[in-house]
Amino acid sequence: MLHHGYRGWTLAVGLAVLSLSGCAHTPELEVVGTLDQAPGNITVTPERRIILSMHPFFNPDWRVAEWTGAGGLRPFPNREIAAGNDPDVPLYSVLGIRSDSRGIVWMLDNGRRGRAPPRLVAWDTHRNALHKIIPLPEPVTPPDTFVNDLAIDETHGSIYIADPAGGGNAALIVVDMQSGAARRVLQGDRSVVPEDMELVIDGQAVEIRQADGTLLRPRVGVNPIALDAGNAWLYYGPMSGASLYRIRVEDLRNGSLAPEALSGRVERYGRKPVCDGISLDNAGNVYVTDIGNNAIGVIGRGGEYRIYLQDPRLSWPDAFSFGPGNRLYTVANQLHRSALLHAGVETARPPFYLFSFAPLDGGVSGR
User: Fold this and answer.
1) d(Cα 290, Cα 7) in Å, to the nearest integer?
2) What is the mean pLDDT of residues 235-242?
């Protein structure tokens, strides 16, 4: 995870790139809403509905909610499902969430709260009805799975899932949207396992208090994951890692490739900080939630990294979603202050934030 030397490196690179480009303009971080509960991930539907997973580390009453503007949050898609009380649409612990172009919201339920197998739950916002449930049982997901984020490839009818799992067995999961068939790929590959990097935020390392009272400074495998605008390349990398990788979708979907051959198709794209989420615009710029620097960063087409905007309110920016009107949305949830990541003591306090800002170029709504 991130250490002080790397923090200085990212700040220096950001300043240097800005200086070289002659760009004096700082993008404005717009507050879309303030929340009294911590969000997880975010997606914006084509109709501009803002749907949030509520971060399971804070034990929320609702797994998923919709931001309604002045009315605040309301349960999504309804109170029974959001609270996990609907037997036909079980939701236990949702983090990854994405809308497709049809307004179908795909919710990635890791099942941890109810100790149930992970699943994808898709809700059609136009019909206000369940679209599909795709189970993700063993061996696609191991016992220590923590399916975290996803990318939807409508061109090829596939969904790609990041599973940091226990670190050494981190992997990607490829799901066929029509049949529900799923494969676990690149398990243990250099592009998905964590590096020996600590996460330091506000001068303090993230720590987990274990059952015996000892403190663990975690290293987290693959987490950020996103497709380019043309659904040709999947970009991803370990959260605790200094590299962003990519692989062609045609290779990832090719079930006949041996594991070694698939690994050989992975490309290192560029340098990144410790991050939780990424998104790509139409020009190929990769936006990065730079959680160690309270910042949003950008990796340009040449693989160079710079800080795009920085604000103390970006206290653990977690995820992105493009919305209509060429705005890029993000959330800040103070995750490092949750009891789980703060040595057993919760110090997070509202408000939590929903932001938007102008990206360098437009992007695909929902991702």
Assistant:
1) 10
2) 97
